[in-house]
Amino acid sequence: MVIVKIGGVVATDPSLLAALLSDFAALARKDLVLVHGGGKEVTAVSETFGYQAEFRDGIRLTSPAEMDVVDMVLGGKINISLVRRARAAGLDAVGLGGQDGGLFVGQARVFDGRGESRTGQVTSANPRLLELLTSAGYFPIVHSTSMSPSGVGLNINADEAAQELAMASRAEALVYISDIAGVLQEGRVLPRLDQSSMEAQIASGVIGGGMVPKVRSARQAVAAGVGKVVIGGFKASGDLQRLLSGASGTTII
Ligand SMILES: Nc1ncnc2c1ncn2[C@@H]1O[C@H](COP(=O)(O)OP(=O)(O)OP(=O)(O)O)[C@@H](O)[C@H]1O
Ligand SMILES: [Mg+2]
Questions:
Q1: How many CB atoms lie within 10 A of CB 247?
Q2: pTM metric for this prediction
């Protein structure tokens, strides 16, 4: 399986998305899965409801009230529109979230000084539904809401959701597509990043914000035997193939 997680503008920009979807179609493989976040869109809609976004270590804090917005934006607006665009691009797309078929489920993360939390962390992942769908020729598009075992909704960082699915399916490749060309150091993309320099650069602040959960998810996936993990950007058609071949982006080792 090849799991590609998209975030930032590529998840919502129509022309970038069209180029990415045509790259998926050109791969002509029956084992492709798309996972998406939508942080900026969730933040924008949350603000119209009067909620202020807060993050810890690049992870969004989600209150029970904000969870409704996350469901509406991630599982509603963004997922539905991605499925429509993928179908228009000739892919047999199906939209799903973590709760569907128990793809990934979790428990609430607790943050100091905060009330009840709907920010989740994955406790188990089961790729069976993805295998069933892809083997029948469908293209699953997965958003990162899920639930606790008792049925409480959880907002899971999409990088973590993609990582857990990649590990559970022993994926051939996991690709994180974001707004930047890779993991940057002094403005340059690092072609390779290993665990010790990763933690050193998080500690020194070179790696910050949403890049922190991304590199940590990537590293855990490598350690768990995922074939290849790449973090990079998408600017034009052909970039997906370039990321998969290691010609661009940062490969996590
Ligand atoms: N050293 C670094 N190299 C690259 N990006 C970095 C670095 N340090 C911090 N960042 C920030 O991390 C961001 C990527 O994480 P972010 O969570 O914003 O995007 P995403 O995960 O693609 O989107 P979403 O969270 O919506 O799914 C970059 O856009 C950049 O602002
Ligand atoms: Mg992110």
A1: 13
A2: 0.96
